[in-house]
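Homework-ish question, so no full write-ups if that breaks the rules, but can someone show me the predicted structure for this set?
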Amino acid sequence: MSHQSTAVPPLIITEDNRFWFAAAEQGWLAIQRCTRCHTLRHPPAPCCARCQSFEWDTIESSRRANLCSYTVIHHPRDTAFDYPLVVGLVDLPEGIRLVADIVGIEPDELVAGMELDVTFAEHAHGAVLPRLTRPEVWR
Amino acid sequence: MSGRGFSGVAAIAGIGATEFSKDSGRSEWQLACECVLAALEDAGIGVPEVDGFALFTMENNPEIAVARALGIPELTFFSRIPHGGGGACAPVQQAAMAVSTGIAEVVVVYRAFNERSGHRFGAGPPKFAYSPSTDQEYRNWINPYGLLTPAQQEAFLAREYMRKYGATSADFGQVSVLSRKHAANNPRAWYYQRPITIADHQSSRMIADPLRLLDCCQESDGGQALVVVSTERARDLRRPPAVIRAAAQGVGPQQISMSSYSRSEIERLPEVGVVAKQLWRQSGLRPAELDAAVLYDAFTPMVLLQLEEYGFCGVGEAKDFIADGHLEVDGRLPMNTHGGQLGEGYIHGVNGIAEGVRLIRGGSTNQPAKRVDSVLVTGGSPVPHSAIVLGTDG
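A: Not a homework solution, just the prediction itself:
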């Protein structure tokens, strides 16, 4: 694997998710919001699962996350990452969940509920996407 | 809406497989043809009588290719079910519905691949992952961060289950040890005569923490086929019918393939609950009345979660249920008596259906001493799910 290019599939950009990746490129974390009932949703979808409205806008997330679950990946390895690779599932205070790689924190420091910041960094194929890091300041 | 319309009307009359290996040395198409012929031979049904196929969408050998190669003259029913091993039991439901409505009379289910010597599911995304479509769009939210394989995607659930209920890696390892014990007594199994201990499990290398190598099923080459006919017809055939008492599919709320992470409790499998309630309604059975089970075991934690979702034990209690010996051959619910996909081979769950048939016929290499009148066979999770209940005739 190490002599090959990454196996990470290129992003599948559609009319339903283009706004989210465009925001990420600008370094802000967008959350889709139904303009009728104000329910937030992620991952994006064309329709509100609560009121079925197709009308939506976005809000910007606080990017202050709490760790819900995580894994430390040892095998198989892909050229796009350094291993062991830590990947987390986090709760955002807005009430949605997000998956991203965790950088700069040793696996034995990880504990459910711990605070993490959502930052942005270049990932496979040059895509700028969320990354989870130690909070910069006490909050 | 009773859903009992086809309960008991159709049966599995034949099973047939190739050997399960790591390098079959022949084409997937040939494997498919070989296992279909073996299943028809087992049933005592001639090739020209086949008029239907029900397959996985992931099956690389189309029904028309197998029909052409075998010289099957006409097909009146052919359908495909998505979601890989999650859908493993759904082609049997398709077949049962086709047979019970008279749309077809002899429906064959098969799954054949070189999943070890060809593309390995554990190596990374499959070829179709690279085709830009809404079907694959879910990968945007997991793959770019390094969750590329099923083990990696299920690890979140396993860790949360451990945290919430105090389960340990060794608790997951009980499933591996049991499966390998059963496989050790099954000559078809890749791990025939190669049992393991809990120490072997605990010293196996980490794949996606908390999942170790011995929490992961095998990757296999091989083919498995099943022949479904009416129960009435099956009574006149070579083998005792394995009657399809119930067959169901299920999708739960906010379902995403392998990554339904927005659910409040990621360690639960609501799609399994959707299937379970249909099975009990169709069959008239309760969980405690099942005599044996073949639970989909791509990864050991999902066996614990399924035991709970199907109601064999309480939530969080699966580790104790297993430790108490209930899944042993002489236990209350003998499980994966063929060795499972951890021990026998990984034919995407379809080899487990064949073991369900053997248990009903009384012919498992680990046949329980007690009478076996009903067996639950399940597909995979955490993806859209399917399962069947097989029973003796009468």
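Now go work out the reasoning yourself. Hint: The first helix of chain A runs from residue 18 to 25.
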